[in-house]
Specification:
Helix content is 57%, strand content 11%. The protein has 108 residues and is mainly alpha-helical.
């Protein structure tokens, strides 16, 4: 398999790809849905709510945090997570723009 030539893409394209890669796993979607539903910072409950191991949840939270889709703050021995509303709005704007561009397309 060949290597990806990232220099062939714009910074915006690379950022969009990183965002969608971060949310491109069903467990991460479930985590986001849970955090959005709670509308508050969540500490240890993510593992209790999802049928996944602590280590698996931690890996997915790390990927979402690295993409800045969620934020986390340490409170004692726990890290509390919440959705980064600015990043979610950015994702929404990207999707909306794609939909607008698609609806303007006249293809067979």
């Amino acid at each position: 398999m060949g290597t990806t030539k990232t220099e062939a893409y714009t910074a915006a394209q690379l950022e969009i790809a990183q965002l969608f890669k971060a949310i491109g796993h069903p467990a991460r979607i479930a985590i986001l849905e849970y955090l959005i539903q709670r509308k508050t910072c969540v500490c240890g409950e993510v593992v209790d709510e999802l049928n996944l191991s602590q280590s698996t949840i931690s890996q997915h939270l790390k990927a979402l945090k690295e993409a800045q889709i969620i934020k986390g703050e340490i409170e004692g021995a726990k890290t509390c997570y919440c959705v980064n509303e600015e990043k979610i709005k950015l994702i929404q704007n990207i999707i909306n723009q794609y939909i607008i561009n698609l609806s303007a397309t006249t293809c067979c």
